[in-house]
Amino acid sequence: MALSRIPATLYKRSCFITAARASSWWSNVEQGPPDPIFGLVDAYNKDTRSPKVNLTIGAYRDDQGKPYVLNVVKEIERALLDKQTEKEYAGILGYPAFHKAAAEFALTKEERVVKENMFVSAQAIGGTGAIRMIGQFLGKFYPYEKTIYVSNPTWGNHTPIFRHSGLNVKPFQYFDPKTCGFDAQACYDNLMNLPKHSIILLHACGHNPSGIDPTMEEWKELSKICKEKEHFVVMDMAYQGFASGDLDRDAGALRLFVSEGHQVAYAQSFSKNMGLYGERVGAMTILCDNEKERSAVESQVKILIRPLYSNPSIHGARIATEILSNPNCYQKWIVEMKGMADRISSMRVALKDSLAENGSTRDWSHITKQIGMFCYSGLSAEQVDRLKDDYAVYLTRDGRISIPALCSANVDYVSKAIHDVTK
Fold this sequence. Notes:
Elements: H1 8-24, H2 38-46, E1 53-54, H3 71-83, H4 96-107, H5 112-115, E2 119-125, H6 126-141, E3 147-152, H7 158-164, E4 168-173, E5 175-176, E6 181-182, H8 184-193, E7 199-203, H9 216-228, E8 232-237, H10 247-250, H11 252-259, E9 265-269, E10 281-287, H12 291-305, H13 315-325, H14 327-357, H15 366-369, E11 374-376, H16 381-391, E12 393-394, E13 400-402, H17 411-422
Parallel strand pairs: 1-12, 3-4, 3-7, 7-8, 8-9
Antiparallel strand pairs: 2-10, 5-6, 9-10, 11-13
Helix pairs in contact: 3-13, 3-14, 4-13, 6-7, 8-9, 9-11, 13-14, 14-17, 16-17
C-alpha cells in the first residue's frame, strides 16, 4: 500500500510505536562499573604523560618492558604449521592428549589417581574458565551447603566467578596487614570454626594478590584441618613453575593434599608459565573415587560445557601438549621459564634495594619474602591514588604490584614515587 493511502493517524501511531520500541528495549540496563584492572589499563593507555608505568595486569614482560613469546613456543608453532593437516573440532572435553599431560604435570605420573585414571579433566578457556567450570559443577552437584570460602584477600575474579556459578562466597582470614605475611593461626582458627563439609578455595602457589604462600609445614596443618572437618578443597594453580621457578615446589601443596587422601578439584592455567595468555589454555580436574563415579562426573561435565562453549580451541592446547610430552621441548621450556621466574625475583630485590637507596626507612622486607608475579605492597588506597595522579604509576587500589612490569629502566622511578607517597 502506498504511504499516501495510509490514514495519517495510523501512520503516526505506527511510527510512534516503532520509535518507542527501538529506543526502550534496553532502557532498564544500568551502567556497570569498569573492571578494576582492565579499567585501569584503559586509563593508563589514555594517559599522555611521560614517564608512566603500568603495574596493574598480571602478564610477564622482558627487561625492555615488552611482551615475551617463548622461543620454544615459536619453534613448536613453526613445526605445527608444517605438519598440521586439519583444524577439526576438539571433543567437548578438549584436545585429548592435553588432559593426560596436564594431569601428569600437576600430580606426576606416579600418583595413584593418575595411574588408575581416577580423575575427570577438561580443557578450559584459561584458568578463569577452569575455575568457572568447577564452580558450575559445584553449584549444581555439591551435596552440602553451596558456600565457598575464599582467602581474604583473593584474586578479584574469584568472587564473581563463583557467585555467577550459583555459590555463596565468604572469606576466611589469610593476610596479616601488620607483617604483610601469612596469618597462620587466624587462618587455622577460621577453617576449624567453619561448618563441616565447607568448600574451601586455596591458591596452590604464588597467592594472588598477596604473593604469600604457606610453608610446607603450614600446608600440612591446613591439610590436617580440612581432613578433620571434612572440607572439600578446590585449588587454583595458575603459576606452577612460575611462582618459584621450581615445578615441584609450586605443585607441592596440591600433591600433599592428594597424597593425604583429599578428593580435590583443581584448576590449572598455562598462561603465565608458557606465555600463552591469548591462547587461553587451562584445565579443570575433579578427582573421583571409583570408575562409576568418574564416568558419571565426566558425563555431567560434558553436559555443562556443551551449551556453554561446545568445545575449546585447539591451537594453544597443542602447543602446551607438545611442551609437556616432548622431552626436548620440555627441557628448553624449563630453562626459559626459570629465566622468567628469576627475572621477577631480581626485580623484587631491585625494588627493595632502590627504596632504601632513595631514602625510605620503612621495612620493605616483605617485597622479597613474597613470591610469584605479585607483591602486596601495603600501600593504602590513598597512596595508590597519589602514585597515579602525581607520577602516572598505575596499580590496583589494594596496593598490588605486578612485579614483571618492573624493569631496569623504570624500577628507580617507581621506587622514588613509592618513597614520596609513603614518607
